[in-house]
Amino acid sequence: MDGFWENIIVITAARYSVVVLCTLIFLTVFELVTSYKNWEEIRKGNLAVAMATGGKIFGIATIFRYSIEHNDSLLQTIGWGTFGFILLLTGYFIFEFLLPTIKVDEEIGKGNVAVGLLSMIFSIGIAFVIGASIG
User: How many Å apart are CA 65 and CA 71, to the nearest integer?
Assistant: First the structure.
């Protein structure tokens, strides 16, 4: 019989718990780098912020999905997931830079749904690329 720490239920619960905690930490980082307050804007019904935040959550989850798939240890999963998040965050800044005629952060904060949708799709798309690339 496998030991307690090798039980698939324990491993799944550990991975789940770590990913939820990392997601909360990473969303806090995103909150710090945006000019608007995500949850306050969502509470007010700002759909653009909700879509951009949803894309970030989906992106983080996608990166961790690949990290879990390719790593046996929890520490490696956290390490690659964190590295993937740093790449996702860098991608967010590059996205802002690539659209010099649009201030992405400002437009999302003002409720521009088109920019929010584009931001969401960018986060999801880049997360698949990051996820496929991490070990």
Answer: 10
